[in-house]
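re: ur question from yesterday

yeah so i grabbed the chain u mentioned. its 116 aa long if i counted rite. heres the sequnce exactly as i have it in my notes:
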Amino acid sequence: MSQALSTTVVIANAASLSAAGSGKLNKIKAIGIPAAWTAAALTFQVSKDNSTFMNLYDAAGEVSIASAAVVASGVVGLSDNLQAILGEWPYFKIRSGTAGTPVAQGADRTLTVYLG
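ran it thru and got these structure tokens back, copy pasting raw so excuse formatting
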């Protein structure tokens, strides 16, 4: 059995947006949520140059994973559509909450991003 390719990003204490991560040449397949997690949906920022990041939207609005699916100590699988959209961007940030209503985390939170 092959080992899953992964990287980590951290949302700092009292922040809602992670440091930048890179999914170059890989699609983000799933996101591992830490055991301690302040309940919130997940949304994304993306960048082509790892400098200018933009909120990610599709035809229906801001692309998000509902807070009900983001469970502490769980792994959230991304839909094929979300994998395809994020796969177009080599750099990403993960937000706790939405652009309009970000949710600050109560401590540093390390998210594991599974690539494929």
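noticed a couple things. The two ends are 14 Å apart (CA to CA). also Residues 80-87 form the longest helix (8 residues).
anyway ttyl
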